[in-house]
Amino acid sequence: MTAGQLADHAGVRAAVRTRERLTAPARDALAVAGRNLLGLVRVPQLLVFSTIQPLVFVLMFRYVFGGVIGRSLIDVPYVDYLMPGIFVQTAVFGAMNTAIGLATDMQTGLMERFRSLPMSRSAVLAGRTLADLARSVFVVALMTAAGFAVGFRLRSSVPAFLAAVLLVIAFAFAMSWVFAVVGLAVGDPETAQAAAFPVLVPLVFASGAFIPVNTMPGWLQAFADHQPVSHTAQAVRDLVLGVPAASDVWRALAWDAGIVAVFAPLGVWLYRRAV
Amino acid sequence: MSSSAISVQGLTKRFGSLTALDGVDLDVPAGTVFGLLGPNGAGKTTAIRILTTILRPTSGRAEVLGHDVVREPAVVRGLIGLAGQYAAVDPNLTGRENLRLIGRLTRLPRRRFRPRADELLERFGLADAGDRTVRTYSGGMRRRLDVAAALVPQPPVLFLDEPTTGLDPASRLALWGMIRELVGIGTTVLLTTQYLEEADRLAGRVAVVSEGRVIADDEPALLKERLGHTVIELRMPDQDRAARAARVIAEQLSLPPERQDSVLRLSSRDGSTLLDVLHLLDERALTPRAVTVRESSLDDVFLALTGHHAEADGTP
């Protein structure tokens, strides 16, 4: 660096203008996402334990509760009813990592450094949710394998199944933004985990993910019938069972779009004012 | 264009009922080192956070190289480097990956930030540890990496918030050398410190901050001249003799010492004070049990400027 460079604000201004271009925020987000994924690879125990938990759910519902639930059910084997619910549950629980990751970055001061850099304001959040998206793809693939191993059978077509997987991943991405807001609002990982739990338990269990909602009391049904986990699980189930799915799929996508539209701006706003 | 790299007027920041900064004025000429000296909670970090666009001020103005931190934060971010009080590096990445990430996020081209990362690892004595995850680093290594990260984009203005806290003496000296070198090529450095010695060694100008206000702003040499640069401590055999000695010194040398039980403390500007004091005590047969002469500490400066000690939790 020379003394001449110090006075060269024009160069910095040009750089600032350059970064207004569309590609710059995406590049920043990818750089942050890459960093988060590296972290995931470097701490494999995190990934291992976060995949064991949904596997336990598969085994528990399939073999412990499955007998009872299956008898009171339905015209399909319970395992075929269950697996779409497991996929969606995995997506929601996995999104909790977004809250923990962001809260950790706040606690370690890394967030403060990012805020002093000439990078896109949305990149820290977008990078985190993108990395968690990649993680979801991995976990859903694993759950699919686990499902087939415990007797799940695809009753529709492979394209329909892929559509179902995409729907699960879209939902995971949307939920990531919800938990991004939780993480930024509380600012430390332990609290983030504690705060996320009461959000996700009612969503996952007071839903049609594992059981038909018509056995619940009326007031609970009213909630369970009108929330995103139920709707997404239903759409995924339609797709893998091979029944007409269009209206449920649109409803699930509308939830995803609505959640991102509300929570992404809220998250960016919190990021701007968080220290 | 003025030659100020950092210009601050009436800067105030309130958090609810707490006033962290209360009308601070600062002027840092380009290409100099400026020290903000003060105990914990004085408002040093708040000032740095505002100047680095992380916090917005409640009122007042702050400019970096002529750019307002509130109105043109994006331009300011392109001109600064920040090493905060906490080592803000990713523990799951290697040292090299951390530096490259900063290079990528400051939009340097790959052909520039890759050699830059290697060069900085070398300079900060981290070349051998560059490919280990930061999780395995010692506290001092993390601090060094943190400062290196601030230097990746070669910023014309550098903010260092207590950069040597937690560094071993060798690393501290190395960092001081690097700061001098940066200033040699025209970089402006604003650093905060709790150590008077550090401010004295590095800074061309020092502002002493207390409770959100600048209570002194001068060249370190002039500050010391005003405040005395060494402290003489006399441990007397008992409280009675300490009281008598204090009275004699105050009367004969018009230098009222501070007395704490049997210990007298007075600041001196040169060696003659010590000679005078010892002569005087010898004449009166008031022999001290022990005599200590040491550099003024932050606490001594505070005592001289404010009449009270610095915050008790300010680590010495």
TrEMBL record, chain A:
It is a multi-pass membrane protein. The chain crosses the membrane at residues 46-65, 85-104, 125-149, 161-187, 194-213, 252-271. GO terms for biological process: response to antibiotic. Residues 45-274 form the ABC transmembrane type-2 domain. GO terms for molecular function: ABC-type transporter activity. It comes from Streptacidiphilus jiangxiensis. Belongs to the ABC-2 integral membrane protein family. Keywords: Antibiotic resistance, Cell membrane, Membrane, Transmembrane, Transmembrane helix, Transport. Its main location: membrane. This is Transport permease protein. The keyword Cell membrane applies.
Automatic annotation (TrEMBL), chain B:
Keywords: Antibiotic resistance, ATP-binding, Cell membrane, Membrane, Nucleotide-binding, Translocase, Transport. It comes from Streptacidiphilus jiangxiensis. Residues 6-236 form the ABC transporter domain. This is ABC-type xenobiotic transporter. One of its GO terms (molecular function) is ATP binding. Its EC number is 7.6.2.2. Gene3D superfamilies: P-loop containing nucleotide triphosphate hydrolases. Belongs to the ABC transporter superfamily. Drug exporter-1 (DrugE1) (TC 3.A.1.105) family. It is a peripheral membrane protein. The keyword Acetylation does not apply. One of its GO terms (biological process) is daunorubicin transport. PROSITE patterns: ABC_TRANSPORTER_1 (PS00211), ABC_TRANSPORTER_2 (PS50893).
